[in-house]
Design brief:
Layout: E1 5-14, E2 19-21, H1 22-26, H2 33-40, E3 44-46, H3 55-70, E4 79-83, H4 94-102, E5 108-112, H5 118-131, E6 138-145, H6 155-158, E7 163-173, E8 178-186, E9 194-196, H7 207-211, E10 217-219, H8 221-242, E11 252-255, H9 260-269, H10 281-284, H11 291-299, E12 308-315, E13 319-326
Parallel strand pairs: 4-5, 4-6, 11-12
Antiparallel strand pairs: 1-7, 2-3, 6-7, 8-13, 9-10, 12-13
The chain binds coenzyme A.
Length: about 325
């Protein structure tokens, strides 16, 4: 018998129905469809408008769909990890709310905050419990309600982000398939370039912070862009090298959907053909922690057992990395 690996044995996404198109944004800020498409590749994004709903509700929809699809009962789940920067509340964590909403009575949960790299970090974390044979059924969800922290008067950010959720089930496999390796990195000095200025312990919410519009995502887009290309390409190369793979051995590259030009640059650096790069940014924009599992969900039918897949992301923190897995079904 081979060594135990944590394998993705199911994936399910959920996106809100409401679409915010580039033409809608033209009426809100000084921008235009041509600029947005040529600079980012985005045509529209989804926005959560259901009254009383938040990130946990999108997660719960994705998890419920995942359980139905895989035939797993809520009581069988051991752990739910939610990657998000838009938790329902500052505390408690969103994952335990999700456990409650899906009826996972025997599970515990916790959130991972690594911005756009959140899903990658959470997947690597969840995999440890499974490959070390601590738990058999771990769910990892990537979800963000970015519309709750986006300033729709700021054209530098409002054209980029959208809302969504997607979940994967991790189970042990001994046939060689599953998560093989990962390289995760961070550089806290990058916090200056991508952050929310107020609402944390450094600058608690006050009338002044609200008036100054400091409760929204802020970024120095150009500098983030450069770091994103370098970080994603570098860790992809590292993970390929140490597993003695070339781009030809990899069936799919799944990059975080930040900007179409970033995706193309990473593929170019890796000499990877765009036909084998998962892309759905044109319909969802950047959903932060949800982009990678949403791609896996949409491309699921094209994947074959044993496919070599590289996931890669870059996000606030800065955080970044690449993960190598062999598809299990
Ligand atoms: N519509 C029209 N014009 C816009 C605009 C918009 N939505 N946003 C910015 N502009 C303007 C700028 O003000 C600037 O005008 P100026 O030259 O008169 O100052 C011009 O367009 C060029 O802006 P610039 O910032 O150089 O554009 P860019 O090509 O770098 O693209 C981003 C901007 C934000 C799309 C790009 O930098 C990016 O994607 N960065 C990565 C961000 C990211 O992915 N963050 C998430 C974390 S992973």
């Amino acid at each position: 018998m081979g060594k135990t690996r944590a394998a993705i044995t199911g994936v399910q996404g959920w996106v809100p129905e409401t679409k915010l198109t580039n033409h809608d944004l033209e009426k809100m800020v000084d921008t235009n469809d041509e600029w947005i498409q040529s600079r980012t590749g985005i045509k529209e994004r989804r926005i959560l408008r259901t009254p009383g709903w938040a990130t946990s509700d999108m997660c719960a929809e994705a998890v419920k769909g995942l359980l139905e699809k895989t035939g797993v009962k809520p009581g069988e789940i051991d752990l739910i990890i939610v990657a998000t920067v838009t938790a329902d509340m500052v505390f408690p964590d969103t994952a335990n709310t999700v456990c409650d909403k899906v009826g996972a009575k025997n599970a515990f949960g916790f959130d991972v905050n690594a911005a756009c790299s959140g899903f990658l970090f959470a997947l690597a974390t969840g995999a440890q419990y499974v490959q070390n044979e601590v738990y058999n059924k771990v769910i990892v969800v990537g979800s963000d309600m970015m519309s709750s922290i986006i300033d729709y008067t700021d054209r530098n950010t409002c054209v980029i982000f959208g809302d969504g959720a997607a979940a994967v089930l991790l189970e042990p496999r001994k046939d060689g398939n599953g998560i093989v390796d990962f390289v995760l990195r961070g550089d806290g000095s990058g916090r200056e370039m991508l952050h929310m200025k107020a609402g944390g312990s450094l600058k608690p919410a006050s009338l002044e912070t609200v008036a100054a519009r400091e409760h929204y995502a802020w970024q120095d887009g150009k500098r983030v862009y450069v770091h994103a290309v370098k970080g994603m390409s570098g860790t992809c190369e590292e993970v390929l090298r140490r597993n003695k793979l070339t781009s030809d051995d990899v069936q799919w590259l799944v990059p975080h959907q930040a900007n179409m030009r970033i995706i193309q640059s990473v593929a170019e650096h890796m000499h990877f053909p765009m036909e084998r790069v998962m892309v759905n940014i044109e319909r969802y924009g950047n959903t932060t922690a949800a982009t990678i599992p949403l791609c896996l969900w949409e491309y699921e039918k094209q994947l074959k057992k044993g496919d070599n897949i590289i996931l890669t992301a870059f996000g606030g923190g800065f955080t970044w990395g690449a993960l190598y897995l062999k598809w299990a079904y």
